[in-house]
Q: What sequence folds into this?
């Protein structure tokens, strides 16, 4: 359809501003190759580093049999497993693009094999804010992820022979499929191939798609050097930006002009003295190019917002201000640069995760899918340690040993019921039950510790301190099939905190539904007298703390009075 429109010479209109890529290198090749450098893209503070990388895989393309490239598939799956196993890397969503359906299926099968061997991997993958996708060149349009892993698949066979057949790329319009595939990434792209750029012989094919692949592999392997000739076509006139940069250099800063791949550039970029490969500060001037390429809203709202989200500290310098008092402008710039350096050293610099536009929406979506359980801490029980036998209770000095065990239990579990403390103390001596002498020894040791205790319906709860009782705001639940507490072993204050979290999500619930939800939160599928009684005390406590309001007419429990 698009080709038909172009053949009819229909008027064309290009969308010039590109916002998806969080690093300019991710769109630089397509911009140079397919958009005549007309796309306005935003430089990154780490402009000298490319986020498009190439991994040369040792293997072959099984051309005569399965049409698969197992070595590439294994490399891609290994990277997926590495990423979802790492809590930090797992914050970035992942997508896989292949050149063929056969390679797509192979990678999908190998990843599922890894899930079967280690089910925790699948659990982690399902917790990612965007699901992992594995798609081929034909059906990836419209998808995007933080990290894209690209498997070429085609390449030398077992005998080292290379065919110039690259599936969809060889067809008419194959370059468009390539362009779509290599522009799916927001943060990083890793290209895996057994084939090298020099093995693609353009004398054996006239396909624009294959030519594009060769250039893209060169770009992934060598970086922006492959685009230098195109960048040099841009006309960079010496203006006020060079004058300001020279003044900053005289003040001891490393400053460069016209940073960026596209026609949109950071006029002056000041290098981070602690990391010269990164820029710490950017300066925009009111040049004719900026006035011609953008609207007032672009210059004052959209562009600064995007640049801040990418990690830039940005200042504007206006020609009239410079001509009026250049010293004042320089002093202001020096102050701002030093502040940016100071924030960077203290760790207070703006984070890339605070990016506006699409990135902000993604963070919002990630927060939106948090469950009530995600907002609770994990209950980590005291680990029983062998401390002796039942006979030790009649020996001198048992008080100090018991006090140490009791204190350790409280540090791990407080608030915790008195009965649980007694039971776990006995367990350290290999006892499931205790006689009168054992109980008396425990009570004597407990009394000497001056432990704060609250009592609810004849159940005593032990705390670390009075301050903990006053300020306790934590709700702990059992996760990953861990040890589960009985509801009557959980302090009403902790149940109240769980109710507070639940109603922050639900706003309003009737009493029965709230008790069921609280029960489920603490790991129980059914309610009963014990759970009802504990939840009732939790609701009373939540009301006393001001967490909830109970409508006397309807009985509904809400986060506040309507």
A:
């Amino acid at each position: 359809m698009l080709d038909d429109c172009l053949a009819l010479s229909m008027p064309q209109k290009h969308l010039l501003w590109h916002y998806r890529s969080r690093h300019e290198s991710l769109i630089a090749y397509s911009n140079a190759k397919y958009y005549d450098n007309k796309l306005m893209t935003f430089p990154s503070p780490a402009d000298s580093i490319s986020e498009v990388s190439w991994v040369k895989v040792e293997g072959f393309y099984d051309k005569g049999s399965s049409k698969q490239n197992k070595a590439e598939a294994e490399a891609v799956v290994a990277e997926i497993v590495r990423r979802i196993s790492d809590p930090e890397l797992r914050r970035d969503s992942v997508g896989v693009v292949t050149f063929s359906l056969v390679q797509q299926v192979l990678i999908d099968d190998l990843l599922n094999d890894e899930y079967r061997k280690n089910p925790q991997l699948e659990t982690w993958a399902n917790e990612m804010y965007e699901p992992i996708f594995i798609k081929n060149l034909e059906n990836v349009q419209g998808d995007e992820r933080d990290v894209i892993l690209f498997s070429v698949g085609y390449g030398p066979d077992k005998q080292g022979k290379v065919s110039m057949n690259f599936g969809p790329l060889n067809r008419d319009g194959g370059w468009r499929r390539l362009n779509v595939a290599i522009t799916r990434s927001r943060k990083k792209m890793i290209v895996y191939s057994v084939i090298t750029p020099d093995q693609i012989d353009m004398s054996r094919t006239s396909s624009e798609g294959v030519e594009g692949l060769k250039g893209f592999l060169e770009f992934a392997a060598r970086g922006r050097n492959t685009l230098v000739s195109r960048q040099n076509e841009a006309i960079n006139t010496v203006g006020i930006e060079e004058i300001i940069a020279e003044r900053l250099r005289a003040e001891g800063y490393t400053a460069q002009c016209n940073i960026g791949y596209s026609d949109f550039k950071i006029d002056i970029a000041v290098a981070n003295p602690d990391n010269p490969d990164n820029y710490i500060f950017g300066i925009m001037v009111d040049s004719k190019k900026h006035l011609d390429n953008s609207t007032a809203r672009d210059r004052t709202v959209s562009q600064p917002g995007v640049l801040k989200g990418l990690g830039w500290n940005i200042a504007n310098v206006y020609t009239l201000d410079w001509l009026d008092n250049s010293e004042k402008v320089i002093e202001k710039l020096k102050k701002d640069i030093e502040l940016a350096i100071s924030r960077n050293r203290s760790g207070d610099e703006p984070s890339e995760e605070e990016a506006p536009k699409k990135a902000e929406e993604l963070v919002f979506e990630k927060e939106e899918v948090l469950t009530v359980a995600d907002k609770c801490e994990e209950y980590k029980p005291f680990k029983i340690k062998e401390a002796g036998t039942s006979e030790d209770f009649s020996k001198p000095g048992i008080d100090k040993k018991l006090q140490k065990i009791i204190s350790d239990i409280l540090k791990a579990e407080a608030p915790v019921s008195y009965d649980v403390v007694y039971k776990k103390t006995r367990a350290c001596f290999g006892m499931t039950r205790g006689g009168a002498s054992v109980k008396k020894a425990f009570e004597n040791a407990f009394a000497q510790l001056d432990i704060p205790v609250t009592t609810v319906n004849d159940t005593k709860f032990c705390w670390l301190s009075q301050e903990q009782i006053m300020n306790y705001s934590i709700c702990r639940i059992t996760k990953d099939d861990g040890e589960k507490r009985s509801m009557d072993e959980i302090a009403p204050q902790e149940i109240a905190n769980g109710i507070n979290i639940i109603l922050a999500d639900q706003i309003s619930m009737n009493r029965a539904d709230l008790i069921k939800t609280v029960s489920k939160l603490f790991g129980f599928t059914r309610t009963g007298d014990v759970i009802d009684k504990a939840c009732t005390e939790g609701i009373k406590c939540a009301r006393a703390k001001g967490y909830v309001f109970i409508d006397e007419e309807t009985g509904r429990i809400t986060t506040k009075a309507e």
The longest helix spans residues 326-346. The chain is about 45% helix and 15% strand.
